[in-house]
Structures are given as C-alpha cells and as structure tokens.
Amino acid sequence: MGSKFPDDWILSRNLRAVEGYAVAHGLDWNEIAGKFGIDPDLGHQRGARVPIRTLFAITEHTAAISGDDAQGFTTGSAVPVGFSSTFDYIAISAPSLRVGVQNWVRFIPIITNAFVLQYEERDGIGYLEWQFSDRHGPRSQFMFGTMSWAVTRILYITADPDAQVSLEFSCAEPKCTTEFQKKMGHRIRYNQAHDRVLIPGCYLSLAHSSAEPNLYSMVEEAALGEMQDNEQSDDMMFAISEQIGEALKNGNNTLENIAGALGMAPRSLQRKLAASGICFRDLTDEIRKSMAAHYLTDTNLPMTEIAFLLGFSDLSAFSRSGKNWFGVAPREYRRKMN
Hints:
Order of helices and strands: EHHEHHHHEEHEHEEHHHHHHHH
Number of helices: 16
Helix content: 40-55%
Strand content: 5-15%
Radius of gyration: 21 Å
Structural class: alpha+beta
Number of strands: 7
Low-confidence stretches: 1-6
Strand order of the largest sheet: 3-4-7-5-6
Mean pLDDT: 91
C-alpha cells in the first residue's frame, strides 16, 4: 500500500477467513488481494505475516463491496476450533477458562505485535479487553471477527452454548444482522468505551472436557517457543509513531517534543526517519490520515472533536486535509462509509 508505517504485523492466516467469505459471496479474491498489494495465497503460507493496517483495510473493503457491514461476525464466528493452532489450544487445554483467557493475554505476541490484550476481574466479572492504536485506520470488521472468534472459544470451553457472555464494542452498530448477533441479542452493546468480552465469574473455573495436564504442558512449551522466536529488537519507528499519535491528541506534536519524549536529540530523530525514507511531516500526515479514517468510520465523534484529536487548529484546516486524503470533505467521507 506504499505506507511508511512501521511493520506492525499480524499472522496472515487471518486472511483466510476473509478470503473464504469473499469466495462464498461471489467476490474476486485475486482482485481484492491485488488492490492491496498482497499475494492472494498469503493467507495459506505458514508463518507469513501481513501488516495490520492492510488486514484492517481488506476486511473493511470486503464488507463494503459485499454490502454486509456485519461481515466480521460471520467470518469470526465460523472459524473452526483449532484453526488458530497454538493460540487456540493454549486456552482450550488450560486447567480453567480463567487460565485460558490469561494465556491469550500472555501469548498474544505469537500472532501479532500490533495490539495488546488485557484481562482483569472485578465484581465477579472477567473483562478481556483489546487495546489498539488509532493510527492503523478503521477496524470495525476486524473487531467483529476477533471478538466473535473469542466468544465461540469461550462457549466451547464452557460447553454451554447459552453461557451469558457479553460483548462491548467501541464502534457503531452495523445495519446488517448475522446469526451470531441474533444469538447474542442484547448481550452485544455498541458505542461503548472499550472493546471487550465480559465473562461472568461462574464460568471462569470451568475447563474443557479435553483439558489434561500433560497436553497442557506440551502446548505451553510450544507457545513459549513460538513467542521466543517472535521476539523483536526494539522498533524505534514503532515508538516514534506511537508518540506522534499521542502528541496529536495532546496538541504538542513537534519534532522537538517527540525527540525529547524518546530521549533523543531532534537531529538524531531526523536522521532515524531519513534512514527509513520518510520525514517527520509526512509520517505525521500518514498517521493523521489513518486516525481520521478510524474516527470518521468507527465512531460517532463530532467533527470538532475529531479535528482536535488530530491536532488541527480549526475545523476548516481538518476539512482541507480531509479532501486531500479522501477526495471529499470529512463529513461526506463519513456519510459514504456509513
């Protein structure tokens, strides 16, 4: 896609679910893959990775051209148990659902370096939360898919298809309705402050019938090996981009401030960016564009607040940049995407 974003990746097997949906609905997967500059067979290549922003964009595009803005629920809930290999079995073979969910948090580096999971328990509820940077663009379909994937595994572990697990999404409610949504009913809530699954405490001590200590030890050892293999050296471009995203929201995005936050001299930061083939201004513009696409597509925030979060001095400046990014003004872009 020609972006200079750092290499925030996710395993490419996630593409297979989107590919399956596209083929089943008469869409040309080769054409879709070509549009985003990836090999159509990338999802079938063991251990291959895809930039997270590319996966987000492909899922949003597939939903748009299929006319199904709830597509992620269909793909995520249909992924068979075992598809995610070690990441599936580290939960299913665990001595309890609680340990299984904690293992997802622990071993998320096996499948991605682009977001984190957090788990906590309060007032008899377990909260499994996904935390993202807004700079990767719209992600509604990915979240529908990922969280419905997680819920199907949780229900599998409890052996109770009617377990009162619920979901909260930060994005708006889709217009279309899938079988998964019908099944969950009022237990799916939109326009919330978090992206998370809520698990009543009565289920947390349950284990799947196949859970067995020796098998669990073998799976845990395999997961530790995979995570060790995926350890990355410190990615300075990732750190720079994270700082810019936060600085835009705080209104202090200058080269000097970003360099100071990273413990660098401004000239050193300039050299680091130049070595990656991008200047500070262009990187800021790319991050602003992806953040703007996310806020306009996935949230109901007013235009003035979005302009503020992107570091613009006024709404007219945001409108001008929006036209450069999307070919239309931000309001029109939001109307077209929603």
